[in-house]
Design a protein that fits this description.
The complex is a heterodimer of chains A (about 375) and B (about 425). The longest helix of chain A has about 35 residues. In chain A, about 50% of the residues lie in helices and about 15% in strands. Chain A is built from eleven helices and nine strands. Chain B contains twelve helices and eight strands. In chain B, a hairpin with a 2-residue loop joins strand 2 and strand 3. Classes of the chains: A alpha+beta (about 375), B alpha+beta (about 425). The interface between A and B is large, with 41 and 44 residues.
Chain lengths: ~375, ~425
């Protein structure tokens, strides 16, 4: 939603749009709603070739950016993904890649990161209550043992949990927050695929029952992960809101075009003030949402001190007004939007679910008060 | 021009601008009073005769020092410099007491006089503009009428030609601070037998003209910023006409764009920093002992978020303007945001403060703050163009949605008035 892109960034956006159009257009997304993965075969490799999982990773570990500012590039891709309601993995996978890039051990960076960048392996983030997801009881605790650590607990709303080879598990404990990179096949881990409101993305609940890991699984230092988790939350929120705003942009444009074309009472319905004023209000909210995504992306990219605050404002604004905008689109489309065949409900599902992932609006608003010491 | 020449040119400009800034800094320190604390615009209630006189004197000092009308044409007493110089000067002047005439600052320097500069005759401007720059003339708008608010082109103020004069009859209303102004820019109908946009003409009118009565209107916040103005055979020389006879609508377009904030110098304040969380509302929540209440905290964060969103929206629309995409529809986004979220913010304050915020000890000067903000919150959704007019502008001019059928453009205005009386709903 940047108003000015470099020619390289334009190319990146176009290549993402072309890939989606060729490999996984909305008709195919729709056709795959009942499948396990929700995506066509070889989707990940193709996406990886375009750098979708590499932008937050240094070249040394198999990554690389287009503009030198990886998050700005990645946000462009997220918008295109939102336009086409693309299946995962994307947000959580990039969050894990970024976490390993910053705090991963030499071994984790050497083995896991390049495979993630190439789309050969899938990783996801298991965080739960630490990032405002799942409510009380949705947290994972760690205790130290003679051989390392034991992880126990449960987290819902894990993106692409069933497809994941690696889990980045965020834990709470007497020592504070820690993070572990765990093989998803480790004994004691149960990944339960969930059915959910958004039929175009896959969520899972992950349970850990006394899962034994060695110290080599630690990402960063034990008890000192708070800063990393904050950064991960910021990245996840930026990408998720960029995806939502991409989806909103397409949906709003469809609705605007419909209001201009559809006639009733002898005139285009978009000529009635009752309709056009609603569209003007929706458009105002959408322009604000675009501006907020740009502000949040820039602040997180630059690692500004107020990045966490701007992210929470963006997430709560886009979360709330995004739903208002979709509801308004329903009203303009009338009955046709209430049919399964129309794409409107697919957008409603994604936009609503995104508003609930990585902290819903009121959780972020409370966070704003805490950030300001209130 | 070769690239090399261009580089040295822009380097020159940068050097000159830096020099200019330094000279301004010195001049300000020697000539203007430093502020104790950052200023906020004057409330109309504070504009006593003494305050007005002091501010006129400040304007005079700027004029004598060569810092008035920095970007206005030299031939009319301005400095004829690019707007970057004006921004630089305003930047330097931030810590000083600058001339502040409340809302008359905007109507004079950002709306009416720029409109006159675009459409007025050189003879008129030669005489008039230097007096504005010297602080002798403040200008208000005689724009809305009791029968035409949103429907500006439906103005019924009658201007009748009489030799080299015009005679104005009718009534204006909502003219901001007209009772403190020296001149007004007045929209009048000069031809009733053509369609409504084609028979309008603008005149500059001295507020002391015989036959002109200006009365402040007592508002819901118990101040009087708006006036109603009665024109009873007010004689205006043809030399005071701004723009061609019957071509007033193109002048109006200029004015409306200026009114939405176009052409104002940027002060360079960073818009991308959120700043403190709604300090006025936090103070209020603390005063009524509700800072720990989770519902109140949600409202505080909501107000803070809306405040920030409004600022970055404004910056985004400004950026679109610089990229050449600005149309009147885009400018309306900013106005619509203000008109939508100012009342919401005022209401959040009422909800946060509860009954305790809306009642106060008789001697408490800050007590009425929430109540006044709540009353004032109703103004931005109406003044300067209602939310509905902004929604029309966004929908029709930015989103390209089809217009409503109109019943008043393809016939003489006199017939429009007759047909409106006998409305049938049929075109």
């Amino acid at each position: 939603m940047e108003l000015e892109l470099t020619s390289d960034q334009d190319l990146l956006r176009e290549s993402a749009a072309r890939f989606i159009d060729a490999v996984c257009p909305l008709a195919m997304v729709r056709g795959l709603v009942d499948s396990d993965s929700g995506r066509p075969a070889d989707y990940l490799r193709g996406a990886a070739e375009l750098g979708w999982f590499a932008m937050l990773v240094s070249e040394e570990h198999g990554g690389g950016t287009v503009s030198g500012q990886g998050l700005l590039d990645l946000a462009l891709i997220a918008e295109e993904r939102g336009r086409g309601l693309q299946p995962g993995p994307f947000v959580s996978m990039n969050v894990v890649a970024a976490a390993l890039e910053v705090s991963g051990s030499t071994e984790q960076r050497g083995t896991v990161l390049p495979a993630l960048c190439r789309g050969e392996l899938v990783a996801t983030w298991v965080a739960g209550a630490a990032i405002g997801q799942g409510g009380p009881g949705s947290s994972i605790v760690e205790t130290s043992t003679n051989h390392g650590f034991r992880l126990s607990g449960r987290a819902g709303l894990v993106q692409d949990g069933a497809a994941a080879d690696w889990l980045l598990v965020t834990t709470d404990g007497p020592e504070g927050f820690s993070q572990f990179l765990v093989d998803a096949t480790t004994p004691g881990i149960t990944v339960q695929p969930l059915r959910g409101h958004d039929i175009t993305q896959r969520l899972a609940a992950v349970s850990l029952d006394e899962v034994a890991v060695t110290a080599s699984a630690l990402v960063g230092e034990r008890g000192l992960a708070r800063h990393d988790i904050e950064r991960q939350l910021q990245l996840a929120c930026v990408l998720s809101t960029a995806e939502t705003v991409g989806a909103l942009d397409v949906l709003f444009d469809m609705t605007r075009a419909y209001a201009a074309d559809r006639t009733a009472f002898g005139r285009p319905i978009g000529s009635f003030q009752a309709v056009k004023h609603q569209l003007a209000d929706m458009s105002l909210s959408l322009e604000c949402a675009k501006a907020m995504v740009v502000a949040a992306t820039g602040a997180v990219q630059a690692e500004r001190g107020d990045a966490g605050e701007i992210v929470s404002m963006a997430k709560s604004w886009v979360g709330d007004t995004g739903i208002d905008i979709v509801q308004g689109c329903f009203q303009v489309f009338g009955g046709i939007g209430y049919t399964w065949e129309h794409d409107l409900h697919l957008y409603l599902r994604r936009i609503t679910m995104n508003s609930l992932l990585f902290g819903q609006a009121d959780w972020h608003r409370e966070r704003l008060c805490l950030i300001h010491g209130l | 021009m070769s690239d090399e020449a261009r580089v040295s040119d822009s380097a020159d400009i940068a050097t000159t601008l830096d020099d200019y800034r330094l000279r301004a800094r010195t001049w300000l320190a020697e000539n203007m009073e430093r502020l104790e604390s950052p200023s906020s615009p004057q409330w109309s209630a504070d504009l006593t005769p003494d305050v007005m006189a002091a501010n006129r004197a400040r304007q005079r000092r700027l004029f004598d020092g060569g810092y008035a009308g920095i970007s206005w044409p030299e031939e009319y007493g301005g400095q004829g410099l690019p707007s970057a110089y004006e921004s630089a000067f305003l930047n330097e002047a931030e810590d000083y007491a600058m001339p502040d005439f409340g809302a008359l600052s905007a109507t004079t320097f950002h709306i009416c006089v720029p409109t006159m500069l675009a459409h007025g005759s050189p003879d008129f401007l030669h005489d008039f503009i230097p007096r504005v720059l010297a602080g002798e003339v403040l200008v208000c708008q005689f724009f809305s009428e009791p029968s035409s608010g949103s429907d500006l082109a439906g103005a019924r103020m009658r201007a009748t030609k009489d030799g080299d004069h015009w005679v104005l009859d009718g009534q204006k209303i909502w003219s901001t601070l007209a009772h403190l102004a020296d001149w007004g820019l007045c929209l009048a109908r000069t031809n009733w037998e053509v369609s409504k946009h084609r028979g309008l003409t603008w005149f500059a009118v001295p507020c002391t003209s015989p036959g002109l009565t200006i009365r402040p209107i007592r508002q819901i916040n118990d101040t009087a910023e708006f006036c109603e103005d009665f024109f009873d055979d007010v004689v205006v020389p043809d030399a005071n006409r701004i723009g061609a006879v019957d071509d007033g609508w193109s002048v109006t377009q200029t004015m409306l764009v200026l009114e939405r904030g176009a052409g104002r110098p940027e002060t360079g304040l960073a818009s991308s920093t959120p700043g403190p969380l709604a300090p006025d509302l936090v103070r209020l929540a603390r005063r009524v002992g509700r800072l720990e209440d989770p519902i109140v905290r949600q409202k505080l964060a909501r107000a803070h978020t809306n405040d920030f969103v409004g600022r970055i929206l404004t910056a985004r629309i400004g950026q679109m303007g610089r990229l050449g995409a600005l149309n009147p529809g885009l400018a309306a986004y900013v106005k619509l945001f203000r008109g939508t979220y100012s009342p919401i913010r005022a209401r959040l304050a009422v909800e946060i403060g509860g009954g305790g915020g809306m009642s106060w000890d008789a001697g408490d000067p800050e007590g009425p703050e929430t109540s006044l903000a709540y009353l004032n919150g109703r103004s931005s959704s109406i003044a300067g163009g209602t939310n509905e007019m902004q929604r029309n502008a966004v929908a029709e001019r930015a989103l390209g949605l089809p217009r409503e059928p109109s019943f008043d453009v393809d016939k003489p205005f006199s017939q429009v008035l007759r047909d409106a009386e006998n409305w049938t709903g049929k075109p």
